[in-house]
Amino acid sequence: MNSLAIQLNKTLGSAAGFLSREGKRMFFPYGGILGQGAEAKACAINATVGMAFEEDGSPLVMKCFSDSIRLDKRAFLYAGSFGLPKLREAWKNLQIEKNPSLKGVNYSLPVVTNALTHGIRIVAELFADPADRLVTPDLYWDNYALIFEDAVGTPLETFNTFKKGAFDVAAMKAALMKPGQKKLLILNFPNNPTGYTATLADAKKIVAAVKAAAKAGKKIVVILDDAYFGLVYEDGVHGESLFAEFATLHENVLAVKLDGTTKEDYVWGLRVGFMSFAFKGATPEQLKALEAKAAGNVRSGISNATSLGQHLAIAAYADKGYAKQKQEKYTVLRKRYETIRKILSDHPEYATCFEPMPFNSGYFMCVKPKGVEAEAVRKHLIAKYSTGVIVLSGLIRLAFSTVPAKKLPELFANVSAAIADLQKSR
Given strand 354-356, what is the order of strands in its sheet? Predict the structure, then answer.
């Protein structure tokens, strides 16, 4: 094991117990090329950094690129494995602004990732061993299985997602209490695929269940997949990230918040995400050690996330029109959500064909077809009704984020008709 990794583990102390075997081996190479480059930064002739500059010292950039974007040429330089300091600070300030409960909470500066998927992979590599289990609702984003089971070798331990229209907290607690001291729990609100966010009542029960498991001796890494954060459309729903509650919950709980610009700011191709850490009693040095572990993983995988995307984000957050423009986009999605609610209310006959799963937020909602297979419905919708949907876990996922409000009635009519067709042909 590298001496830098050993030192980071010593700094983490008992918190190193949260790390996987690979996580314990991970470090940021301060003494490597980057460290040496930093030492030579003030030199009159600096031949250390793998970039190119003009004769005047500005970045060497082709005009066909630089004229296509209104940013400083520094946007074409490496951003560093931790991410641009200005963006990390800006995002943390935004996190606190959007989650008032985080004010005064001790947690790390966000490390920039190549959006959420990359962040999840880093979590898997830092914290998950084959002997561990990823505890997740049985209605989950399929990339979890690809990352944890297929790539890292950590099996999923699923539990029933809903019971009587609410989050099945008892099932989650039972999964956490199964044999094995260390658990990884992933919570995705708003949930993909269902578009469900924990209610205020759900949230209290979720936190209490995790605390009970921690008190029973389980070491739990709680992963908050906040990809769709902020897109909540109903009162009585927990509007903040659960990261604030888990950040100081118990010494046996380490919280990891994954979020980013992708869905929150409607920039799907920008690929700028963030990873933040917290645990009860964490010192500044311990949090920096976790940042270094994450940055070391970034360095070993992609070197650093897109500089262009990070500079675009910095510029956007400094724009006086940012908040107003974001609210306008939110209103578009909320209108579609409200349209769906009215459609379901106006068409009680749809209940003979499908059952809507609980939903109150996000980009999606799901329906469960009655008496027929979801995959058969999906194919029939394409063949007869020219309608495309996604099937996950026996459910039909409808992305209303991509469908104009005026076409939503037709979407639901088609889904109902397709199911009815198959019901008749049985």
Answer: 354-356, 364-369, 395-399, 390-392
